[in-house]
């Protein structure tokens, strides 16, 4: 949804939060005036640098940081980035449970993470938590640098936090409803999701900022786009990708796709295992894709086209349980 269409459905409380996200110390009482000010300052609202600063959670309290991350992961999977308020909270609660369950599954961790990277990162993670029951911005930044250097994803980081009893809170204690609601409010004050009401209450990421948000915190591809990408690969391609990452390669195509999604192999990881010839063959099956350029350019084109096609075509919303592109490598 475009910003202008969302604003017309927003009430004073939520309009005020949006104004405050990019105009400090401005007090306005009239709703129409707030809408007009936001539209006049639309370029600042959708400024990529502003959004990226808002999505840098290093200085936030860790509970807010983690809850914000979970909320955004869920939101970018909805069609048109539009989430019914009650469903969003339910999906966040379900997502945190899924991550804890996977993090406590030793067999899953053995298969999902490289052994040496897991050992090194776990040792540093334990050391960071040993001082007290909180991580400061400096400690979080060091972990982020190490995570990237070891080739781990954000999801790997959260899995290992679960394994040492630190996700989403100490003792793997789940977030309460109030904590998630507070995090949603924090994101609103950062100018990311807007809230409006028609027949129901909704949170939405406006069309003008959705790509910046998705690439900054949400993932490489939406789940539906990733599934379509896998469907356009042959069984031989899927087996080669699984073999590359030391996964079992037997089974039907559906079983291979399920295994790839179960272990959250990233779209970029799958594409990296394809030869140029295989990538060309795959691109032939997708509408509107130009095949010229390097392999990296073709990979980016494939991802962009898939997301665009699926954004324009309504699809059944996938459950968070099967989300594949959560916590991507950056």
Describe this structure in words.
This protein is mainly alpha-helical and 330 residues long. Strands 1-3-2 form a 3-stranded antiparallel sheet. It has helices spanning 3-7, 12-22, 31-40, 42-45, 48-54, 62-75, 85-103, 106-112, 115-130, 137-149, 154-163, 177-189, 210-218, 223-231, 235-244, 253-262, 267-272, 276-284, 295-312, and strands spanning 82-84, 194-197, 201-204. It has 2 domains: 1-218, no CATH class; 219-322, no CATH class. The model is unreliable at 310-330 (pLDDT under 50).
Helix content: 55-70%
Can you tell me the residue ranges where pLDDT is under 50 for at least 5 consecutive residues?
A: 310-330
Give average pLDDT, whole number. 85
Oligomer: single chain
* Backbone CA Rg: 21 Å
How many structural domains? 2
Describe how the helices and strands are arranged:
Blueprint: H1 3-7, H2 12-22, H3 31-40, H4 42-45, H5 48-54, H6 62-75, E1 82-84, H7 85-103, H8 106-112, H9 115-130, H10 137-149, H11 154-163, H12 177-189, E2 194-197, E3 201-204, H13 210-218, H14 223-231, H15 235-244, H16 253-262, H17 267-272, H18 276-284, H19 295-312
Antiparallel strand pairs: 1-3, 2-3
Helix pairs in contact: 2-3, 6-7, 6-12, 6-13, 7-11, 9-10, 14-19, 15-16, 18-19
């Amino acid at each position: 949804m475009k910003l202008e269409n969302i604003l017309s459905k927003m009430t004073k409380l939520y309009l005020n939060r949006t104004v405050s996200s990019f105009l400090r110390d401005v007090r306005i009482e009239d709703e129409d005036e707030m809408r007009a000010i936001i539209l006049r300052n639309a370029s600042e609202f959708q400024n990529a640098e502003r959004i990226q600063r808002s999505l840098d959670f290093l200085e936030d309290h860790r509970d807010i940081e983690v809850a914000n991350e979970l909320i955004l992961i869920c939101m970018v999977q909805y069609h048109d980035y539009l989430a019914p308020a009650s469903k969003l909270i339910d999906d966040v609660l379900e997502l945190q449970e899924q991550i804890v369950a996977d993090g406590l599954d030793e067999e899953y961790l053995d298969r999902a993470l490289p052994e040496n990277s897991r050992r090194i990162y776990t040792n540093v993670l334990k050391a960071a938590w040993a001082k007290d029951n909180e991580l400061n911005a400096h400690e979080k930044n060091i972990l982020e640098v190490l995570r990237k250097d070891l080739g781990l994803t954000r999801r790997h980081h959260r899995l290992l936090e679960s394994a040492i009893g630190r996700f989403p809170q100490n003792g793997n204690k789940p977030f309460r409803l109030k904590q998630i609601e507070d995090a949603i409010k924090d994101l609103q004050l950062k100018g990311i999701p807007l809230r409006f009401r028609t027949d129901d209450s909704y949170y939405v990421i406006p069309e003008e900022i959705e790509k910046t948000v998705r690439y900054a915190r949400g993932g490489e591809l939406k789940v539906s786009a990733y599934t379509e990408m896998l469907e356009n690969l042959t069984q031989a391609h899927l087996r080669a990708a699984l073999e590359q990452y030391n996964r079992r390669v037997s089974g039907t195509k559906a079983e291979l796709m399920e295994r790839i999604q179960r272990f959250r192999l990233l779209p970029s990881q799958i594409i990296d295992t394809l030869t140029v010839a295989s990538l060309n063959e795959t691109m032939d099956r997708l509408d509107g894709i130009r095949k010229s350029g390097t392999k990296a350019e073709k990979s980016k084109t494939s991802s962009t086209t898939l997301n665009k096609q699926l954004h324009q075509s309504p699809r059944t919303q996938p459950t968070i349980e099967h989300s594949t592109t959560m916590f991507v490598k950056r």
